[in-house]
Amino acid sequence: MRACIILGVVCVHICAWFDTQTVPYSTGNILLDLATMAFHFTRESFMFITGCVLFYTYYDHRPLNVWSFWKRRLTLIAIPYLVWSAIYILYTGTYLAGFDWHLQALLGRYAKAIATGNQFFLYYILVSLQLYVVFPAMVWLMRRVRRHGLLFTVAAVMELVLLALNAYVLPHTPLTGWPGWLQTLLLYRDRWVITYEFWFFAGGIVAVHYSTLRQFLLRHTRWLYAAFALSTVLMWLVYAIERWPGGIQEADAVQVLQPVMVPYAFMMTLVLWRLGVAWAGLGVRGRTTSWGRVIAFFGRVSFGIFLVHPLFLHLVEVYLVPHHVRERWWLIEFPAAVLFVYVMSGLVAEGIGRVPWLGYIVGRKAIPRGRRMRLSEATSTPQEG
Fold it and tell me: How many domains, the chain?
């Protein structure tokens, strides 16, 4: 699933860059808008997977060692967050006009980046850091509330309400006179863990009841695909209504944080899960084919691709989109741009991950070969006493 989802991340960002070159309401503009919405499942799918993996790993551990969990998880993800925030700032300084290179300005920009996750797409890591902080409380709640179907329903309704407020109420609500801290919370509402609570709980519920839900999914695959198709049509219908009779701005019509995206992203995530189950069913034979090794590679470096790909997106933005995109060439240029960003980001991420210690910045625990051998010997040698 990770290889497919990170490919979707690249696609949605390439769509956005191509869309900037279209005329509003033109055929190309509308098609790219629909494609952008179709690829906008990625954020939620990754959160679903994160919740699923965490609960699958820790739910049955009684009791959960909170301090050990925080130390392990927060360290592994905080290092990339801190390092890439700095890398992005320095990188954007090479092409932004009037960029202030004075130390005080850089430190101020860096502090704001850490606090808000405003460098490219690092908001996702900021949300993940918050998830790790509250995860022990989520485990406690899941254990106390045994009716997980009810918990799923409440989380889904809450998600729909939050996204309705985000899409249709808050943009038209003047915040003048509101407390400063509340204005800040609302301004950055897309990077608070509460905004995505449904996806983490949904992934957790799937993990806790994995065998039962997997069998249900296998028995009702046709209904799943039908529900996915219906949710896709519904999403595009809402887009059409919002852009034409509603007169809503294009950016608001295609945004991911709106209620109609919940059923679509959920169905898409389940479809990917179903395809993943089929892939796993191929066994070793399927995974050792050429395509199997390619999928395994990109799945392994998916987090690194997420971190590296903004650098290559900028190259596409500068050298391809403004100068060469013509609608008649999209069928060639779009997949070429996606392939370039996806493959180059994967290769760079893999290269970084292989360097001792440096691999930590892409979420890989790369340690020097000599020390790795000593650790292996220490852990395999019986201890006396």
Answer: 2
Mean residue pLDDT of the chain comes to: 87
162: its two tokens: 């939050």
Which of 281, 311, 336 finishes a domain?
Answer: 281
What is the mean predicted confidence (pLDDT) over 211-238?
95
Residue 288: both structure tokens together: 């050792």
For residue range 44-63, what is the model confidence (pLDDT) as tens digits? 999 999 999 999 988 887 67
- Sequence-distant contacts of 38-42: CB under 8 A, at least 24 apart: 38/232, 38/235, 39/8, 39/9, 39/11, 39/12, 39/15, 40/12, 40/254, 40/256, 40/261, 40/265, 41/8, 41/261, 41/264, 41/265, 41/268, 41/269, 42/5, 42/6, 42/8, 42/9, 42/12
pTM of the model: 0.88
Is residue 33 one of the residues assigned to a domain? Answer: no
In a domain, 32, yes or no: no
Q: Are residues 275 and 175 in the same domain?
A: yes
Q: Are 341 and 10 in contact (CB under 8 A)?
A: yes
Residues 6+ apart with CB under 8 A from 170: 186, 189
168 with 302, same domain? Answer: no
Token duo for residue 339: 């392939």
In a domain, 360, yes or no: yes
Q: Are residues 244 and 331 in the same domain?
A: no
Tokens of 134: 């509250």
Neighbours of 340 (CB within 10 A): 17
Asked which of 246, 281, 316 is the last residue of a domain, the reply is 281
DSSP-derived letter for residue 256 is S
